[in-house]
Amino acid sequence: MRLVRLNVHPLKSAAIRPVGSAAVLARGLVDDRSWMLVGPDDRLVSARELPALFRVVADTPATDPTVSSALRLRAVGHRDLAVDLPGGPEVLVHLFSLDLPATPAGPEADAWLRDVLGTDVRLVWCHDPTRRRLQPGFSSPADHTAFADSFPVTVASLASLRRLDDWILERALEEGEEPPEPLPVERFRANLVVDGDEPFAEDRWAEVRVGEVRFRVAKPVGRCVMATLDPATLRTAKEPTRTLARHRLVDGRTLFAAHLVPLAEGTIRVGDEVTAR
């Protein structure tokens, strides 16, 4: 197998940032999901609630070497905004059922995002990922991450996506629907995209090595409504949830891709050999 794509998401739910290489830390890829938006109640605001967030481009020096600030925000029709690492007092924010410490970015960033998105949000930074515990039963006490939904890293397989696309086409023909275009793998917002194994071989993996960096496979990814949202049109559709529910429904969850936990630190690169056992 090979690593064919590598993605970092500095701002949770914002535009995917493809990179050629990435440093891997215990908390995941450097700068991945280190920032997120919260509403007036300090709860996560993601593209589930605010699809336009997909069109906000957030970069750091790890995703664009021309960036000289901690974070740069861009949106069509708006000036770029450079955001420095905040140093104020921490607050508690709510990521689903978790209460996590974070540091607010400040009023300038909040005003910029309100102007772009048209709603009341605040930008916060995860200043200490080591204080985030992961799902019991699938992690060790030392495992941690920033604002990812569940685990530090996700991996998706193009072989599995091709099989899913075949199933989606079969279902459309059964229902008398227009044959759909294949789904882009970006729908699943994985950090690592691999190719070269059998479809859904990742279900059987216990450990993955990318280049010289090892990862433990924690569990499959249960997909949410985000996978039904087209980042180009911002419209939702029945797929892939409808077809995943037919072929990949386990304990009430539709499964695609896998969660990983780094077992070592290092640098991974597009083109790296990937081995799994």
Give the number of helices: 3
Average pLDDT metric: 97
Query: Could you list the spans in which at least 5 consecutive residues all have pLDDT below 50?
Result: none
Structural class by helix and strand composition: mainly beta
SSE run: EEEEEEEEEEEHEEHEEEHEEEE
Main pleated-sheet profile: 9 strands, mixed
The overall strand count is 20
State which percent range the strand residues make up: 25-35%
How many angstroms does the end-to-end distance come to?
A: 12 Å
Radius of gyration: 19 Å
Q: Helical amount among residues, as a percent range? A: 10-25%
| C-alpha geometry | globular
Pfam family, one: MOSC_N
Protein name: MOSC domain-containing protein
Organism: Nocardioides furvisabuli
Domain MOSC: 121-277
Structure, explained:
It is a single chain. The protein is mainly beta and 277 residues long. It has a domain at 34-128. It has helices spanning 107-117, 158-174, 241-247; strands spanning 2-8, 17-18, 21-25, 28-29, 35-38, 44-45, 57-59, 71-74, 81-83, 91-95, 98-104, 122-125, 153-157, 192-195, 207-210, 213-222, 249-250, 253-262, 266-269, 274-276. Strands 1, 2, 13, 14, 15, 16, 17, 18 and 20 form a nine-stranded mixed β-sheet that branches. Helix 2 packs across helix 3. The radius of gyration is 19 Å and the shape is globular.
What descriptive keywords fit this protein?
277 residues, mainly beta, 9-stranded mixed β-sheet, 5-stranded antiparallel β-sheet, globular, Pyrv_Knase-like_insert_dom_sf, MoCF_Sase_C
